[in-house]
Design brief:
Two copies of one chain form a homodimer. Chain A is mainly alpha-helical and 239 residues long. Helices cover 68% and strands 4% of the residues of chain A. The structure holds a DNA duplex (30 and 30 nucleotides).
Amino acid sequence: MSVAAKKVQRAPRAAPLSLAPLNTSSLRNQVYVHLKAAIADMDIYNAQQQLRLDERELITALGVSRTPIREALSLLEQEGFIRTLPRRGIYIIRKSKRQIIEMIQMWAALESMAARLATLHAPDAEIAKLRHLFDEFQNSPPSEHLHEYSDANIAFHTEVIRLGGSQAIIDATRNLLLHVRAIRRATIGQSDRAARSIVEHLKIIEALERRDTELAERLARQHTLDLATHVDRNCDFLG
Amino acid sequence: MSVAAKKVQRAPRAAPLSLAPLNTSSLRNQVYVHLKAAIADMDIYNAQQQLRLDERELITALGVSRTPIREALSLLEQEGFIRTLPRRGIYIIRKSKRQIIEMIQMWAALESMAARLATLHAPDAEIAKLRHLFDEFQNSPPSEHLHEYSDANIAFHTEVIRLGGSQAIIDATRNLLLHVRAIRRATIGQSDRAARSIVEHLKIIEALERRDTELAERLARQHTLDLATHVDRNCDFLG
DNA sequence: CGTGCAGCTCTGGTATACCATATATTTGCA
DNA sequence: TGCAAATATATGGTATACCAGAGCTGCACG
C-alpha cells in the first residue's frame, strides 16, 4: 500500500521529461477528482448500476489508504453526490424529481443573474462567440444531430454563466451542471424541444448583444424555468 | 485524549435524564458546528484577530483527535471559510470586496427566485407573518434601534427564502448568509439605508400578498442588488 | 560583521490500528 | 418449526504513528 502511494507521488520524478501533467495535487484531490468523474460518467438516471461504494474496496482499487479516500468521500457527500449511512454503507445519490426541479430553478436564477451581469460587463467579442456554438445547426435541423446539439446546448448555458464574470456563480453552478446536464440530455429529444430551444437561445444572444439587461435576464430565466416545467410534467420516471 | 472523547460520546448515557440535547451527531459534526459558529461569531471583517488555526492546538482545545478535526476543517475549506496551505498553516479567509459583491449578487438571484416561487406556492398566512417582523418599527424609526432592526432585516430575507419552498435554495443561501449578514449589519447604519430598506421590504411584502410574481421577483432582486452597489461604492475598507 | 548552508522544527498528508454498533447469521429453546 | 437471543461480521468513526517538505535558526566560514 505504502509503496503504491509513494509510486504515485514520485511518478513525475521517475519520468522527468513527461511534462508533469500537473499531478502535483494531494492524493485526496486525486481521489476526489477520480470519484467525481466516475460518478458523472455513469448515467445516474438511467442505470441500475452499482450504487453502493465500499471504502475498503476503493482502497485496493486506487492503491491508497482510507484517509484520503474518506476525505474525498466527505467532500462528495457535502456536495450532495453521495450519502453515507453509518454502518450501512455509502451510496450514490439519485436525486428525486423534486430535487431536480429545485436544481433547475436554482440554475435558472443563477444563469439569469449571469445574463444580467453579462449585459453590463462582457465584451462584445465574447458575446459574439455564442453564435458560433450553433453555426453547424443553422442549415440542418438539430433533431438530426441530437447528441451534438445537446452538447452545444450545454456549452451555451455554461458560456453565458462564464460571461457573467461572477466566479461565485460559476463555482456554484459547476456542481449543479452534473445533474442539470443529465436532465438536459435526457429531455432534449422530447416534444421538439431542440428546435424551440435554438430559437430561444438566439433571442437570448440578441438580448445580450443589444445589452438589454432586463430582457436577457428574463429570457434566460424563462428558458430554464420552462425546462423545470417540462421535467415536472413529463419526467415521471424520476424518483 | 481518548478518555475525553469517550466521555463526550457517552455523556447521554451518564446523564439519562438530561433531555439529551441531540448530542447524537458524530464528533466530526460537533467539531464542524463548533468551529463554524466560532468563525461566524468573530466579526471577520473588523478584527485583527487570530486568523490562523492550528490543528494540534484544536486537539487540546476540543479534546478530540486530529481525524474529526481534519474532516471538519476539510468541510469548512470546501465551503470557503478557511484555506489550508500545505506546510504553512490553516487560515480563516477574509473575503475580498469583489467576492462579497459576488455573494450579494448571488443572494439577489436566489432570493428573487425564492420570491417568485413564494408568490406561486406560499400560503397567505405565511406571507402575512412577514409584516409582523417589522411591527415594532412601525411607530419609531428603525434608526433608533439599529441592532434590532438589523436582525429583523436579516430575518425578513431569510424568511422570504424559506417561503420560496426550495430546499436547494435554502441550503445554498445558508452559507452565504454568514457573510451577507456581516455586510448587512455593517452597512445598515449608512446613509439612511434602514429607513429606505423598510419601505422596500413592505413593497416586496405587498407584491407577495398580491401574488404579483414578476413584481415580487424584480423588487427582491433590485433591493439586494442595491446593497451590492452600495458596498461597491462605500465599502472600500474591505479587501 | 555578513552570508550561506545544515539541520531542526513545525505542519499538514498519509497509513493504519483500534473501536463501537448495526446488521446478519446461527443456534438453542419453546 | 418458528422465534428470539447471542454471537459473528462488516462498516464507518476515531486515534495515533509516521512521513515529507518548507521555513527558520544558528553556526561556521569568508
